[in-house]
Design a protein that fits this description.
The chain has 12 helices and 8 strands. By secondary structure, the chain is α/β, with parallel strands linked by helices. It has a single domain, classed as Aldolase class I (TIM Barrel, Alpha-Beta Barrel), CATH 3.20.20. The protein has an 8-stranded parallel sheet with strand order 7-6-5-4-3-2-1-8. α1 packs parallel to α12. The longest helix is centred in the last third of the chain and has 19 residues. The structure holds phosphoenolpyruvate. The site of phosphoenolpyruvate has 13 residues, from β8. Phosphoenolpyruvate binds next to β8.
Length: 253
């Protein structure tokens, strides 16, 4: 049975005090209200990871993610944070290849493949993001485009390592726009991607891979989206900044 996962990407938001309040509210609500078979992950700004890990660490169905990491192991890379540093403070997951990083920081699939490798080498779980732009969605070939992001970013992995990866399908046109993919559109892409995984790793591995949906997911639409057979949870942006709403999303399976 593949894992049900709800991950909150806080992006570049919240002061330290605000982050502490949000994290402790989420931790309490998750402990009290969310089914133990749902894994809940928060991805705060890197600066707060050490402190907030102390809140999430003791909760068995919670994890804490970095929003990015370096593709280099260590050394003279000013401003970067390595996977081994993240591991050393108890980080469990790393978001890799979010569309904002691809778009604003020009991250390529080649670089992202290196990041996936280094995250896995350090015993953490990559949450690998993929998704098409509005122009691509309105044209042809967007299924093949998203599949190619997976091919180039993670298909170099052995089946064993591939089994440790979580995928997040996030249509760029739905991120932060209030435009959500319909549940049918999400299901269609997730089923297609699962087929693509099966073509490389076989049906058993594909069936064990969690594929999350991201893009204006909120407490109102989560249940409908998560009810789709190939949608295994969500990567949540804006709605993860409110503890009540984020927890409600985690309760939407
Ligand atoms: C995201 O950026 O990963 C995301 C899904 O954002 P939002 O939920 O705000 O659309």
């Amino acid at each position: 049975m593949r894992k049900k996962i709800v991950a909150g990407n806080w992006k570049m938001n919240k002061s330290m005090d605000e982050a502490m309040i949000l994290a402790s509210e989420v931790v309490h609500m998750v402990k009290d209200e969310v089914n133990a078979d749902v894994q809940v992950i928060i991805a705060p700004p890197a600066l707060y990871l050490t402190t907030l890990q102390k809140h999430t660490g003791p909760v068995s169905n919670m994890g804490i993610a970095a929003q990015n990491c370096s593709n280099k192991a260590s050394g003279a890379y000013t401003g970067e944070i390595s996977a081994s540093m993240l591991k050393s403070i108890g980080v469990t997951h790393v978001i890799i290849g979010h569309s904002e990083r691809r778009q604003y920081f020009n991250e390529t699939n080649e670089e992202l493949a290196e990041k996936v490798n280094i995250v896995l080498e350090n015993g953490m779980t990559p949450i690998f993001c993929c998704g098409e732009s509005l122009e691509q969605r309105q044209g042809e070939g967007f299924f093949a485009f998203v599949a190619s992001q997976l091919t180039e970013g993670i298909f170099h992995l052995s089946a064993e390592d591939f089994g440790k990866v979580v995928i997040a399908y996030e249509p760029i046109w739905a991120i932060g726009t209030g435009l959500t993919a319909s549940s049918a559109q999400a299901q269609e892409m997730h089923a297609y991607l699962r087929g693509h995984l099966a073509s490389k790793y076989g049906q058993v591995v594909a069936d064990e891979t969690s594929i999350l949906y991201g893009g204006s997911c909120n407490e109102k639409n989560a249940e409908e989206i998560f009810s789709q057979p190939d949608v295994d949870g969500g990567l949540i942006g804006g709605a993860s900044l409110k503890s009540r709403e984020f927890t409600n999303i985690a309760k939407s399976f």
